[in-house]
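Thread: Newbie trying to understand structure tokens

Hi all, I'm a second-year student working on a class project, and my supervisor (Dr. K.) asked me to get a predicted structure for one chain before our next meeting. I've only ever worked with sequences, so writing a 3D structure as a token string is new to me. If someone could post the tokens and maybe explain what I'm looking at, I'd be very grateful. Here's the chain:
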Amino acid sequence: MERKVVIFDYLVEGKESGHLILDDEYWLNYFSRFEYDFTLYTSSYSRDFQIKRNPNLGNRVKVLMGISIFSSLGSRFHAIGKIIKSPRFYKSKVIIQGFDEVSILVFFLLNAMRKNQFILILTNNISSGRLSKSPSILKALLKIIFYASDIIIFHSEKEKELIEEKFGSRFNEKLRKKKYHLIGRNCKLSAQSKKSNIISFFGPVKKDKPLEPLIDLIRSDSERRFQYNIFNIDKESATLMSEFKYFDHVKISSGFMDDHAYEEAVMRSRYIFLSHNTEFEPKLSGNLCDCFANGIPFISNSIYPAKEFVDAYGPLGFFFDIDRDETWPLKFLTSDSDKIHNDYVGNIGRLQEDYSYSRLVENTRVVLEE
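---
Reply by user tm_fold:
Sure, no problem. This is what the structure looks like when written as tokens:
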């Protein structure tokens, strides 16, 4: 790889950026492993996080600064300000780790005709909900972005299907499927999960990640078999849970969770509740990735890309047609057992083997080949 490598992660901000900061960590470790000439452009918070983890790589991380007047106009203009103040790149392999469909056009314009190779990573850009809300505008923007990109990295077959549905086969030669590296981050099987009776839900609550399905389950659990821990929900969402305010088996927490607290909450869970509906499909949930990384089965709506993993590795948790089947809570409550839980964990173990760090590195190397 003769080109200088640039990892451009301009959407990262502070600690609330969560998984985006871990994306930075993966790319730093990957390129340093092979001694490439590379630079990561990210936020000051992510830079400090990366240097704390990898002090020797501090000179590889540069901070993207915004323009105050742009930042005062909102997040999209803040992103555009960071792009305007960023360096212009030349003869570089530029990995764009996440993008906003408007601001990234400014980036392509400023770096046009400079012999770069642009590698675009889709991160929650393609979903049924987004494409149905503004089909003409979003399709037009994505079309320009895809033409400007040399490689388009996706993570699930359903993403590719939606792209082909909207654009035909014109971008197929650019499309490359990559294993999502956070699934393989520090893989382990929780020893606490089997003995636990905790079902955990991690916010924030959104239109495509509603709280109502969990409420239905809690109401149906009249025997209080499970402890329900709900994290990171806002005041409006907490109001929906007011009927459980004095229930000992329902714990509601708001506010930011640091990495340690979040990981501990995941590891103590018997199941992670994933309420995403079809509007979210086929985006890859960070909570789903953490289920796989920690050996925790899920309770999920029957949607992609979770179904894609189940097709490949066998049952990894409970699947229900939550939006249409009103009896799903009772089906879960009468079906759960240690044997079923063990079977799910065993299948997750097989998935983890396929997402080992060495296999992720090899997959990344193949995907990035020119």
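A couple of things are worth pointing out once you decode it. The chain has two domains: 4-183+357-368, 198-354. The two ends are 8 Å apart (CA to CA). Feel free to ask follow-ups in this thread.
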